[in-house]
Amino acid sequence: MPTTRQAPLRVAMLAPISWRVPPRRYGPWELFTSLLTEGLVERGVDVTLFATADSLTSARLVGTAPTGYSEDDRMDAKVWEAMHIATVFERASEFDLIHNSFDYLPLAFSRLVDTPVVTTIHGFSSDVSLPVYQRYNDHGSYVAISDADRHPELDYVATIHHGIDLGQFPFREVSDDYLLFFGRIHPHKGVVEAIDLAERVGMPLVIAGIVQDQAYFAELVEPRIDGTRVRYVGPVGPAERGTLLGGAVALLHLISFDEPFGFSVVESMACGTPVIAHDRGSMPELIRHGESGFLVGSPDEAAEAVPAAARLDRATVRASVRGRFEVARMVDDYLELYLRLVGRSLVARAG
Length: 351
Known about the structure:
Shape: globular
Strand content: 15-25%
Oligomer: single chain
Order of helices and strands: EHEEHEHEHEEEHEHEHEHEHEHHH
Helix content: 25-40%
Number of strands: 13
C-alpha cells in the first residue's frame, strides 16, 4: 500500500536583531539561534528565520531590519524590534510552532495567535522582566538554558543546554604561556579579578571581548593594559576564537553574578583549555571540577588553581564537552520538544 509522506515541521525562528545571525564577533543569542536553525534545516525541518536582512542561513530568511541595531547607531532599536516581532506574528498561521529566542517582548503577542510559542529564556540579569514571564507563564512554553537559571516562580517545559560546533574549536594539546579573559568587559564578568590573578601568579593575561561598560573599562581596566603583561585584543570573531582559546593555559571566568550558561566556557574546554571559574550559576553544570577546570570561591583558591589547571590532561578536558555540549545534541533536544508541543497543540485544536 502507498504510504502517506508526512509534511515537514514548519518552524518560525525568531532571532534578536541586536546583531546579525550568525554574529560577526559578539552575539551569544544570535549564535545560539544560528546553530539551532542550521541544525534543524539539516534534520529536514522547514525553518523560516526571522532575523536581520544581512543574516546568513540555509533556512528561508525574512529580514525586516537591514542590519543589527548594535552595528548601526542610526537605527532606533524599539522601532525595528516592533516591526520585526510583528512580522512573525502576522504570519503565525503559516507555522506549526514559533520559537522565540528574542526575550520577553514577543510574549505580549502570544495570546493573539493559535500557533504554540516556545521561548528560550537566555537568563535573568535582574528580575525587571519577570512580571512579563509571570503573566504568560500559564500560556507559554519556557526553556531554561541551565538548571541554575530556572526561576522559582516560573514553570518550564525543559532545560536544554546550548551546543557548539566542535569543528570550529580545534584541539590544542600544548598551550602557549598566557591566561585568558574572554567575554563582555563588565564588572559582573570579573575582568579586574582576572588581571589581579594573572599578576599574582606572574603570568601574562590576554583580554578579549566587547567593552560593555565604558566607565569600568576606562577607570579600572585600561590603565593596567601595558601591551606585554596585560594585552587587550578587542572583540574576537569566529575565525580567531578557537586559536585564542586553544592557546591559553586556562580561561579565567571569575564572575560576580549567576551566569546562565557561558559559551566561552564550553568553547574553551572544547579546545582542551581548562576553565577557572567562580562557583556560581551554571558553572557546576559545565565544568567538572578537577577534570575540565576548577570551581573556586576566593582569590587564594583561584591562585592555587592556575598551576593545577596547567597539569590537567587537555584531551580529557575536550572529552568532557563531547556529547554533552555538541550542537547535534541540542538540536535533537529541541526537535523532540517541538514535536511534543505541536502534538499537544493539534489535539487541543481537534477538541
